[in-house]
Specification:
With about 475 residues, the chain is α/β, with parallel strands linked by helices. It has 16 helices and 21 strands. Helix 9 links the parallel strand 9 and strand 10. InterPro entries: Class-I_Pyr_Nuc-Dis_Oxidored, FAD/NAD-bd_sf, FAD/NAD-binding_dom, FAD/NAD-linked_Rdtase_dimer_sf, Pyr_nuc-diS_OxRdtase, Pyr_nucl-diS_OxRdtase_dimer.
Length: about 475
Protein backbone atom coordinates (compact mmCIF):
# COMPACT_ATOMS: atom_id res chain seq x y z
CA UNK A 1 0.00 0.00 0.00
CA UNK A 2 1.29 3.45 -0.93
CA UNK A 3 2.34 5.82 1.82
CA UNK A 4 -0.28 8.57 2.29
CA UNK A 5 0.34 12.18 3.29
CA UNK A 6 -1.95 15.20 3.61
CA UNK A 7 -1.22 18.82 2.63
CA UNK A 8 -3.40 21.87 2.21
CA UNK A 9 -2.18 22.35 -1.36
CA UNK A 10 -0.53 19.95 -3.82
CA UNK A 11 1.13 21.41 -6.92
CA UNK A 12 2.19 19.14 -9.79
CA UNK A 13 4.99 20.86 -11.67
CA UNK A 14 7.89 22.77 -10.13
CA UNK A 15 8.44 25.46 -12.75
CA UNK A 16 7.94 29.19 -12.10
CA UNK A 17 4.13 29.00 -12.38
CA UNK A 18 3.90 26.13 -9.91
CA UNK A 19 6.41 27.72 -7.53
CA UNK A 20 4.41 30.94 -7.42
CA UNK A 21 1.10 29.16 -6.96
CA UNK A 22 2.48 27.19 -4.01
CA UNK A 23 4.21 30.18 -2.41
CA UNK A 24 1.19 32.47 -2.62
CA UNK A 25 -1.20 29.74 -1.45
CA UNK A 26 0.69 29.19 1.82
CA UNK A 27 1.89 32.74 2.49
CA UNK A 28 0.89 34.12 5.87
CA UNK A 29 -1.65 31.44 6.73
CA UNK A 30 0.14 28.48 8.28
CA UNK A 31 -0.92 26.28 5.37
CA UNK A 32 1.17 23.43 3.97
CA UNK A 33 2.09 22.72 0.37
CA UNK A 34 3.79 19.97 -1.58
CA UNK A 35 5.55 20.68 -4.89
CA UNK A 36 5.82 17.55 -7.05
CA UNK A 37 8.52 17.67 -9.75
CA UNK A 38 9.86 14.82 -11.89
CA UNK A 39 12.81 16.76 -13.34
CA UNK A 40 14.35 19.98 -12.01
CA UNK A 41 12.72 22.47 -9.67
CA UNK A 42 12.70 25.74 -11.59
CA UNK A 43 11.33 24.06 -14.69
CA UNK A 44 11.78 24.73 -18.39
CA UNK A 45 12.48 28.45 -17.97
CA UNK A 46 15.43 28.05 -15.64
CA UNK A 47 17.26 25.29 -17.48
CA UNK A 48 16.02 24.95 -21.06
CA UNK A 49 14.28 28.16 -22.13
CA UNK A 50 14.32 31.76 -20.85
CA UNK A 51 17.58 31.81 -18.90
CA UNK A 52 19.90 29.85 -21.20
CA UNK A 53 18.46 31.41 -24.36
CA UNK A 54 18.95 34.97 -23.12
CA UNK A 55 22.43 34.09 -21.89
CA UNK A 56 23.22 32.99 -25.45
CA UNK A 57 21.63 36.05 -27.05
CA UNK A 58 23.14 38.88 -25.00
CA UNK A 59 26.78 38.42 -26.06
CA UNK A 60 25.84 38.73 -29.74
CA UNK A 61 23.82 41.86 -29.01
CA UNK A 62 26.66 43.41 -27.04
CA UNK A 63 29.09 42.68 -29.89
CA UNK A 64 26.70 44.20 -32.45
CA UNK A 65 26.38 47.34 -30.33
CA UNK A 66 30.14 47.57 -29.97
CA UNK A 67 30.57 47.32 -33.72
CA UNK A 68 28.22 50.29 -34.12
CA UNK A 69 30.07 52.50 -31.63
CA UNK A 70 33.01 54.71 -32.67
CA UNK A 71 35.85 54.36 -30.21
CA UNK A 72 34.92 50.74 -29.61
CA UNK A 73 34.42 49.48 -33.15
CA UNK A 74 38.13 49.20 -33.87
CA UNK A 75 38.62 46.95 -30.85
CA UNK A 76 36.13 44.32 -31.99
CA UNK A 77 35.88 44.52 -35.80
CA UNK A 78 36.62 41.16 -37.36
CA UNK A 79 36.66 39.39 -34.00
CA UNK A 80 34.07 36.68 -33.28
CA UNK A 81 32.51 35.74 -29.98
CA UNK A 82 34.50 33.53 -27.64
CA UNK A 83 32.14 30.55 -27.91
CA UNK A 84 33.61 28.66 -24.96
CA UNK A 85 33.20 31.69 -22.69
CA UNK A 86 29.63 32.27 -23.89
CA UNK A 87 28.68 28.67 -23.17
CA UNK A 88 30.38 28.75 -19.78
CA UNK A 89 28.41 31.85 -18.83
CA UNK A 90 25.22 30.14 -20.03
CA UNK A 91 26.02 27.15 -17.82
CA UNK A 92 26.55 29.46 -14.86
CA UNK A 93 23.02 30.81 -15.29
CA UNK A 94 21.57 27.30 -15.42
CA UNK A 95 23.76 26.32 -12.45
CA UNK A 96 24.97 23.29 -14.37
CA UNK A 97 21.44 21.87 -14.13
CA UNK A 98 21.75 21.68 -10.36
CA UNK A 99 18.45 22.75 -8.77
CA UNK A 100 19.56 22.65 -5.14
CA UNK A 101 19.23 26.43 -4.83
CA UNK A 102 15.63 26.28 -6.06
CA UNK A 103 14.89 23.48 -3.62
CA UNK A 104 16.37 25.50 -0.76
CA UNK A 105 14.13 28.45 -1.76
CA UNK A 106 11.04 26.22 -1.74
CA UNK A 107 11.84 24.91 1.72
CA UNK A 108 12.44 28.42 3.01
CA UNK A 109 8.95 29.34 1.75
CA UNK A 110 7.39 26.42 3.65
CA UNK A 111 6.96 24.23 0.58
CA UNK A 112 7.98 20.57 0.61
CA UNK A 113 9.57 19.31 -2.61
CA UNK A 114 8.66 15.76 -3.61
CA UNK A 115 10.60 14.15 -6.45
CA UNK A 116 8.62 12.01 -8.87
CA UNK A 117 5.89 11.92 -11.48
CA UNK A 118 2.54 13.06 -10.12
CA UNK A 119 -0.88 12.26 -11.54
CA UNK A 120 -4.47 12.65 -10.36
CA UNK A 121 -6.16 9.48 -9.14
CA UNK A 122 -9.36 10.97 -7.77
CA UNK A 123 -10.94 13.87 -5.93
CA UNK A 124 -8.15 16.05 -4.40
CA UNK A 125 -5.79 13.05 -4.60
CA UNK A 126 -2.42 12.77 -6.36
CA UNK A 127 -0.30 9.66 -6.75
CA UNK A 128 3.46 10.14 -7.10
CA UNK A 129 5.71 7.55 -8.75
CA UNK A 130 9.09 7.95 -7.09
CA UNK A 131 12.24 5.89 -6.63
CA UNK A 132 11.38 5.06 -3.02
CA UNK A 133 7.93 3.73 -3.88
CA UNK A 134 4.53 5.19 -4.63
CA UNK A 135 3.24 8.05 -2.50
CA UNK A 136 -0.37 9.23 -2.25
CA UNK A 137 -0.97 12.89 -1.51
CA UNK A 138 -4.32 14.29 -0.41
CA UNK A 139 -5.05 18.03 -0.68
CA UNK A 140 -7.39 19.60 1.85
CA UNK A 141 -7.88 22.74 -0.22
CA UNK A 142 -6.56 22.48 -3.77
CA UNK A 143 -4.53 20.68 -6.40
CA UNK A 144 -2.72 22.87 -8.95
CA UNK A 145 -1.57 21.53 -12.32
CA UNK A 146 1.52 23.39 -13.57
CA UNK A 147 3.10 20.86 -15.92
CA UNK A 148 4.03 23.27 -18.72
CA UNK A 149 4.43 22.17 -22.32
CA UNK A 150 6.79 20.17 -24.52
CA UNK A 151 8.17 20.67 -28.02
CA UNK A 152 6.42 18.86 -30.85
CA UNK A 153 8.07 17.18 -33.83
CA UNK A 154 5.89 17.32 -36.97
CA UNK A 155 5.02 13.99 -38.66
CA UNK A 156 7.49 14.38 -41.54
CA UNK A 157 8.91 11.17 -43.02
CA UNK A 158 12.24 10.43 -41.32
CA UNK A 159 12.27 13.55 -39.13
CA UNK A 160 11.74 11.89 -35.75
CA UNK A 161 14.15 9.09 -36.70
CA UNK A 162 16.81 11.74 -37.45
CA UNK A 163 16.73 12.79 -33.79
CA UNK A 164 16.56 16.53 -34.49
CA UNK A 165 17.33 19.15 -31.90
CA UNK A 166 14.39 20.68 -30.07
CA UNK A 167 14.44 23.83 -27.95
CA UNK A 168 16.14 21.93 -25.13
CA UNK A 169 19.09 21.01 -27.34
CA UNK A 170 19.56 24.38 -29.00
CA UNK A 171 19.52 26.28 -25.70
CA UNK A 172 21.96 23.77 -24.20
CA UNK A 173 24.22 23.29 -27.22
CA UNK A 174 27.76 22.13 -26.49
CA UNK A 175 29.03 22.34 -30.06
CA UNK A 176 28.14 24.69 -32.91
CA UNK A 177 27.17 22.85 -36.12
CA UNK A 178 28.42 24.40 -39.36
CA UNK A 179 25.18 23.91 -41.31
CA UNK A 180 21.79 24.18 -39.59
CA UNK A 181 18.18 24.01 -40.74
CA UNK A 182 15.70 25.72 -38.41
CA UNK A 183 12.10 24.56 -38.86
CA UNK A 184 9.61 27.24 -37.81
CA UNK A 185 9.07 30.98 -37.86
CA UNK A 186 7.98 31.80 -34.31
CA UNK A 187 9.82 33.12 -31.28
CA UNK A 188 11.95 30.03 -30.59
CA UNK A 189 12.94 29.72 -34.26
CA UNK A 190 13.87 33.39 -34.62
CA UNK A 191 15.80 33.64 -31.36
CA UNK A 192 17.62 30.36 -32.07
CA UNK A 193 18.61 31.54 -35.54
CA UNK A 194 19.92 34.77 -34.00
CA UNK A 195 22.29 33.19 -31.50
CA UNK A 196 23.36 30.36 -33.83
CA UNK A 197 24.50 32.92 -36.40
CA UNK A 198 26.27 34.93 -33.68
CA UNK A 199 28.05 31.78 -32.48
CA UNK A 200 29.42 31.05 -35.94
CA UNK A 201 27.02 28.78 -37.86
CA UNK A 202 28.25 29.00 -41.45
CA UNK A 203 25.03 28.14 -43.28
CA UNK A 204 21.61 28.65 -41.69
CA UNK A 205 18.35 27.90 -43.47
CA UNK A 206 14.97 28.74 -41.96
CA UNK A 207 11.98 26.79 -43.31
CA UNK A 208 8.66 28.47 -42.58
CA UNK A 209 5.23 27.10 -43.49
CA UNK A 210 3.64 30.55 -43.47
CA UNK A 211 4.45 33.77 -45.25
CA UNK A 212 6.11 35.67 -42.38
CA UNK A 213 8.19 35.48 -39.23
CA UNK A 214 6.62 36.20 -35.84
CA UNK A 215 3.15 35.93 -37.35
CA UNK A 216 1.42 36.95 -34.11
CA UNK A 217 3.20 40.31 -34.11
CA UNK A 218 2.54 43.35 -36.26
CA UNK A 219 3.53 42.42 -39.85
CA UNK A 220 6.12 45.17 -40.08
CA UNK A 221 7.88 43.85 -36.97
CA UNK A 222 8.45 40.44 -38.53
CA UNK A 223 9.68 42.11 -41.72
CA UNK A 224 12.38 43.95 -39.76
CA UNK A 225 13.56 40.64 -38.28
CA UNK A 226 13.59 38.98 -41.72
CA UNK A 227 15.68 41.83 -43.13
CA UNK A 228 18.26 41.63 -40.37
CA UNK A 229 18.52 37.82 -40.32
CA UNK A 230 19.20 37.88 -44.03
CA UNK A 231 21.87 40.54 -43.51
CA UNK A 232 23.49 38.21 -40.98
CA UNK A 233 23.52 35.37 -43.51
CA UNK A 234 20.30 33.43 -42.94
CA UNK A 235 18.44 31.93 -45.88
CA UNK A 236 14.71 32.15 -45.16
CA UNK A 237 12.26 30.05 -47.18
CA UNK A 238 8.60 30.98 -46.74
CA UNK A 239 5.56 28.87 -47.63
CA UNK A 240 7.83 25.84 -47.65
CA UNK A 241 7.30 22.33 -46.25
CA UNK A 242 9.66 19.53 -45.29
CA UNK A 243 9.05 16.55 -47.54
CA UNK A 244 11.36 13.99 -45.96
CA UNK A 245 14.55 13.66 -43.92
CA UNK A 246 17.33 11.09 -44.21
CA UNK A 247 20.22 11.13 -41.75
CA UNK A 248 23.47 9.21 -41.68
CA UNK A 249 24.00 7.26 -38.46
CA UNK A 250 21.59 9.11 -36.16
CA UNK A 251 22.52 8.66 -32.53
CA UNK A 252 21.39 9.89 -29.11
CA UNK A 253 24.69 11.62 -28.36
CA UNK A 254 23.21 13.75 -25.60
CA UNK A 255 21.44 17.06 -25.17
CA UNK A 256 23.07 19.80 -27.22
CA UNK A 257 25.49 17.54 -29.09
CA UNK A 258 25.09 16.88 -32.83
CA UNK A 259 22.88 13.80 -33.10
CA UNK A 260 24.63 11.91 -35.88
CA UNK A 261 25.95 12.45 -39.37
CA UNK A 262 24.75 14.88 -42.04
CA UNK A 263 21.01 15.03 -42.73
CA UNK A 264 19.57 15.34 -46.22
CA UNK A 265 16.28 17.25 -46.21
CA UNK A 266 13.86 17.56 -49.09
CA UNK A 267 11.97 20.85 -49.25
CA UNK A 268 9.00 21.87 -51.35
CA UNK A 269 6.77 24.81 -52.16
CA UNK A 270 3.65 24.91 -54.29
CA UNK A 271 5.84 25.37 -57.39
CA UNK A 272 9.35 24.15 -56.58
CA UNK A 273 11.41 21.53 -54.75
CA UNK A 274 15.01 21.19 -53.61
CA UNK A 275 17.27 19.22 -51.30
CA UNK A 276 19.62 20.61 -48.65
CA UNK A 277 22.24 18.89 -46.53
CA UNK A 278 22.83 20.08 -42.97
CA UNK A 279 24.70 18.99 -39.88
CA UNK A 280 21.75 19.54 -37.53
CA UNK A 281 18.03 20.28 -37.67
CA UNK A 282 16.39 22.52 -35.06
CA UNK A 283 12.66 21.85 -34.74
CA UNK A 284 10.85 24.93 -33.42
CA UNK A 285 7.41 24.17 -34.80
CA UNK A 286 5.15 24.45 -31.78
CA UNK A 287 4.54 22.96 -28.35
CA UNK A 288 1.85 20.80 -26.76
CA UNK A 289 0.44 21.23 -23.23
CA UNK A 290 1.78 18.76 -20.67
CA UNK A 291 -1.48 16.92 -20.04
CA UNK A 292 -0.73 13.46 -21.50
CA UNK A 293 -0.12 11.54 -18.27
CA UNK A 294 -1.81 13.56 -15.55
CA UNK A 295 -4.66 11.17 -14.74
CA UNK A 296 -7.23 13.66 -16.03
CA UNK A 297 -9.64 10.85 -16.82
CA UNK A 298 -9.95 10.14 -13.09
CA UNK A 299 -11.74 13.48 -12.62
CA UNK A 300 -13.74 13.41 -15.86
CA UNK A 301 -11.38 15.43 -18.08
CA UNK A 302 -9.87 14.67 -21.48
CA UNK A 303 -6.10 14.46 -21.76
CA UNK A 304 -3.90 15.73 -24.56
CA UNK A 305 -5.21 19.28 -24.84
CA UNK A 306 -4.96 22.52 -22.91
CA UNK A 307 -7.09 22.74 -19.78
CA UNK A 308 -9.94 25.25 -19.84
CA UNK A 309 -9.98 27.50 -16.78
CA UNK A 310 -12.03 30.38 -15.46
CA UNK A 311 -10.38 33.65 -14.45
CA UNK A 312 -9.66 32.30 -10.95
CA UNK A 313 -7.64 29.62 -12.80
CA UNK A 314 -10.01 26.86 -11.63
CA UNK A 315 -10.38 24.05 -14.19
CA UNK A 316 -13.78 23.94 -15.88
CA UNK A 317 -15.82 20.77 -15.51
CA UNK A 318 -14.50 19.71 -12.09
CA UNK A 319 -17.03 19.97 -9.28
CA UNK A 320 -16.04 21.61 -6.01
CA UNK A 321 -13.59 24.16 -7.40
CA UNK A 322 -10.53 22.36 -6.00
CA UNK A 323 -8.55 21.81 -9.24
CA UNK A 324 -6.54 24.65 -10.81
CA UNK A 325 -4.22 24.95 -13.82
CA UNK A 326 -1.56 27.61 -14.37
CA UNK A 327 1.05 28.28 -17.04
CA UNK A 328 1.42 26.65 -20.46
CA UNK A 329 -0.82 23.76 -19.47
CA UNK A 330 -3.93 25.96 -19.71
CA UNK A 331 -3.03 27.48 -23.08
CA UNK A 332 -3.97 31.04 -22.10
CA UNK A 333 -0.58 32.74 -22.58
CA UNK A 334 2.46 30.50 -23.01
CA UNK A 335 5.03 32.84 -21.49
CA UNK A 336 6.94 32.41 -18.25
CA UNK A 337 5.98 35.79 -16.82
CA UNK A 338 2.31 35.13 -17.57
CA UNK A 339 2.50 31.71 -15.95
CA UNK A 340 4.00 33.35 -12.86
CA UNK A 341 1.22 35.93 -12.96
CA UNK A 342 -1.38 33.17 -13.10
CA UNK A 343 0.38 31.40 -10.24
CA UNK A 344 0.11 34.52 -8.09
CA UNK A 345 -3.60 34.93 -8.85
CA UNK A 346 -4.28 31.23 -8.32
CA UNK A 347 -2.35 31.13 -5.04
CA UNK A 348 -4.18 34.18 -3.71
CA UNK A 349 -7.53 32.61 -4.67
CA UNK A 350 -6.67 29.37 -2.88
CA UNK A 351 -5.52 31.24 0.23
CA UNK A 352 -8.65 33.41 0.29
CA UNK A 353 -10.98 30.46 -0.10
CA UNK A 354 -9.14 28.50 2.58
CA UNK A 355 -9.55 31.44 4.97
CA UNK A 356 -13.20 31.96 4.06
CA UNK A 357 -12.58 35.36 2.47
CA UNK A 358 -14.61 36.69 -0.43
CA UNK A 359 -12.88 36.92 -3.80
CA UNK A 360 -13.51 40.64 -4.11
CA UNK A 361 -11.32 42.89 -6.18
CA UNK A 362 -9.13 42.42 -9.27
CA UNK A 363 -6.35 40.72 -7.32
CA UNK A 364 -8.25 37.43 -7.52
CA UNK A 365 -9.06 37.56 -11.22
CA UNK A 366 -6.64 36.88 -14.08
CA UNK A 367 -7.27 39.29 -16.93
CA UNK A 368 -3.88 40.38 -18.30
CA UNK A 369 -3.38 37.01 -20.00
CA UNK A 370 -6.39 37.68 -22.20
CA UNK A 371 -5.65 40.89 -24.11
CA UNK A 372 -2.91 42.65 -22.13
CA UNK A 373 0.02 40.27 -22.44
CA UNK A 374 3.54 41.75 -22.77
CA UNK A 375 6.35 39.98 -24.58
CA UNK A 376 9.88 40.66 -25.76
CA UNK A 377 11.49 38.65 -28.55
CA UNK A 378 15.25 39.01 -28.15
CA UNK A 379 16.15 38.87 -31.81
CA UNK A 380 18.30 41.43 -33.62
CA UNK A 381 16.43 43.79 -33.63
CA UNK A 382 14.41 43.13 -30.49
CA UNK A 383 10.62 43.01 -30.85
CA UNK A 384 8.64 44.14 -27.80
CA UNK A 385 4.87 44.29 -27.60
CA UNK A 386 1.88 44.34 -25.30
CA UNK A 387 -1.84 43.98 -25.83
CA UNK A 388 -3.58 43.77 -29.19
CA UNK A 389 -2.16 44.12 -32.65
CA UNK A 390 -4.02 46.39 -35.04
CA UNK A 391 -5.61 43.36 -36.72
CA UNK A 392 -6.68 41.83 -33.40
CA UNK A 393 -8.19 45.12 -32.24
CA UNK A 394 -10.27 45.36 -35.42
CA UNK A 395 -11.38 41.73 -35.03
CA UNK A 396 -12.51 42.62 -31.48
CA UNK A 397 -14.75 45.34 -32.88
CA UNK A 398 -12.86 48.32 -31.47
CA UNK A 399 -12.84 51.76 -33.07
CA UNK A 400 -9.22 51.33 -34.06
CA UNK A 401 -6.70 54.07 -34.64
CA UNK A 402 -2.98 53.47 -34.97
CA UNK A 403 0.01 55.76 -34.87
CA UNK A 404 3.61 54.88 -35.61
CA UNK A 405 6.94 56.71 -35.69
CA UNK A 406 10.58 55.88 -36.15
CA UNK A 407 12.52 55.66 -32.90
CA UNK A 408 14.63 58.71 -33.69
CA UNK A 409 15.22 60.58 -30.44
CA UNK A 410 18.29 61.70 -28.54
CA UNK A 411 18.40 58.49 -26.54
CA UNK A 412 18.45 56.26 -29.61
CA UNK A 413 21.05 58.42 -31.38
CA UNK A 414 23.31 58.16 -28.33
CA UNK A 415 22.70 54.42 -28.08
CA UNK A 416 24.59 53.73 -31.29
CA UNK A 417 25.37 55.30 -34.62
CA UNK A 418 22.83 54.42 -37.30
CA UNK A 419 20.20 53.35 -34.77
CA UNK A 420 17.11 52.04 -36.55
CA UNK A 421 13.85 51.34 -34.77
CA UNK A 422 10.12 51.89 -34.93
CA UNK A 423 7.23 52.19 -32.47
CA UNK A 424 3.48 51.82 -32.90
CA UNK A 425 0.47 52.38 -30.66
CA UNK A 426 -2.93 50.80 -31.30
CA UNK A 427 -5.68 53.00 -29.87
CA UNK A 428 -9.34 52.53 -29.05
CA UNK A 429 -10.82 55.71 -30.48
CA UNK A 430 -13.99 55.30 -28.43
CA UNK A 431 -12.15 55.52 -25.09
CA UNK A 432 -8.98 57.33 -26.26
CA UNK A 433 -6.79 54.68 -24.61
CA UNK A 434 -3.91 52.49 -25.69
CA UNK A 435 -4.90 48.86 -26.29
CA UNK A 436 -1.67 47.71 -27.92
CA UNK A 437 1.91 48.77 -28.53
CA UNK A 438 4.88 47.41 -30.48
CA UNK A 439 8.51 48.50 -30.40
CA UNK A 440 11.22 47.19 -32.72
CA UNK A 441 14.89 48.09 -32.48
CA UNK A 442 18.09 47.49 -30.53
CA UNK A 443 17.60 47.41 -26.76
CA UNK A 444 13.89 48.31 -26.73
CA UNK A 445 12.93 45.68 -24.12
CA UNK A 446 12.71 48.20 -21.30
CA UNK A 447 10.19 50.32 -23.23
CA UNK A 448 7.56 47.61 -22.98
CA UNK A 449 6.64 47.95 -19.32
CA UNK A 450 5.59 51.59 -19.66
CA UNK A 451 3.28 50.49 -22.48
CA UNK A 452 2.00 47.63 -20.31
CA UNK A 453 1.07 50.07 -17.54
CA UNK A 454 -0.72 52.28 -20.07
CA UNK A 455 -2.67 49.33 -21.51
CA UNK A 456 -3.57 47.65 -18.21
CA UNK A 457 -4.36 50.97 -16.53
CA UNK A 458 -6.47 52.16 -19.50
CA UNK A 459 -4.71 55.52 -19.20
CA UNK A 460 -6.34 58.17 -21.43
CA UNK A 461 -3.98 59.77 -23.93
CA UNK A 462 -4.72 63.20 -22.48
CA UNK A 463 -3.28 61.93 -19.19
CA UNK A 464 -0.23 60.41 -20.91
CA UNK A 465 0.84 63.92 -21.98
CA UNK A 466 1.74 64.46 -18.32
CA UNK A 467 3.93 61.33 -18.13
CA UNK A 468 7.04 63.25 -19.13
CA UNK A 469 9.90 61.06 -20.44
CA UNK A 470 13.39 61.66 -19.08
CA UNK A 471 15.89 63.23 -21.45
CA UNK A 472 17.92 61.89 -23.20
CA UNK A 473 16.40 58.39 -23.18
CA UNK A 474 14.65 56.23 -25.74
CA UNK A 475 11.47 56.66 -23.71
CA UNK A 476 11.14 60.03 -25.42
CA UNK A 477 9.60 58.09 -28.31
CA UNK A 478 6.38 58.23 -26.24
CA UNK A 479 6.30 61.99 -26.76
CA UNK A 480 6.87 61.53 -30.49
CA UNK A 481 3.97 59.06 -30.64
CA UNK A 482 1.64 61.48 -28.84
CA UNK A 483 2.71 64.29 -31.13
CA UNK A 484 2.06 62.17 -34.21
CA UNK A 485 -1.43 61.35 -32.93
CA UNK A 486 -2.07 65.03 -32.17
CA UNK A 487 -1.21 65.94 -35.78
Amino acid sequence: MAERRVFDVVVIGGGPAGENAAAYAVAGGGRTAALVERELVGGECSYWACMPSKALLWPGEVLAQARAMPGVRGLVDGRPLDVSAVLARRDAFTNGHDDSGQVDWARSAGIEVIRGHGRLVGDRTVEVDRPGGALELHAREAVVLATGSAATVPPVAGLAEALPWTSRDVTNLHEVPERVLVLGGGVVACESATWLLALGVRELTMVVRGASLLARSEPWAGERVVERLRELGARILFETELGSVRREAPGASGEGWVHGGPATVSLGTATDAETVTVDEIVVAAGRRPGTADLGLESVGLTRGRALDTDDHLAVAGVAGGWLYAVGDVNGRAALTHMGKYQGRVCGDVIAARAAGRALDGPRYTASADRTQTPQVVFTDPQVGSVGLTEQQARANGLAVESVSVDIAVAGSALHNDGYRGRAQLVLDGATDTVVGATFVGPDIAELVHAATVAVVGRVPLERLWHAVPSYPTMSEVWLRLLEARRG
